[in-house]
Amino acid sequence: MTALIHGSPKAAGGNSEKILQLLEKRLTGPCVRVDTVRTGPETWEALADCEAAVVIFPLYVDSLPSHLLRFFMEWEMDRREQQRRALSLYAVAQCGFYEGEQNRIALEQVSCFCRKAGISWQGGVGLGGAGGFAEMPEALLKPLTGVISSLAEAVNRKEELPSLQFASVGLPRWLYLAAGNQSWIRGAKRFGLKKRELYQKP
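The structure assignment produced for this chain is given below.
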């Protein structure tokens, strides 16, 4: 059994949820989804039944979301108190920055958690350019889905990733940034604001 840990504070519809769905389709064994916002004894029992887990989360200020940090602290305590079975953990970090490398520090934090909690760290992937994940055509997402497929293969084979892997969308950086700027302007217009109002300061 593989646990798919949804590490975003958004209940549904976010980029982490979409990545989780893509990964789940590529896994061959049974999976169980684990929420990190609402936890209880059933959360830790579900994880205790698994041989492997994958945590998927958004990057928050080059780190983990605060609720995910709390989740890890509670999980570590449960594993120590209950002397849980061996477990392998993989991670997927995604961010709106163009560079997938921006997720490196957050993935290293997950590695540190594994050492403290007695979990076998199996590696992770960092996805950049996830800000347009919902709107981009499938062809532009191939670099991201390719890395997700590589991760799924490692989980299916119960293997460690050879190294941290990073990928970004199939767009030049300048074009990705230009599209992001335009999305801010379109969003402002939906709320009745003009472009110049985005630059106002208190």
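Interim note for the steering committee: The chain is about 40% helix and 15% strand. The helical segments are 15-26, 41-48, 66-82, 104-117, 142-157, 173-190.
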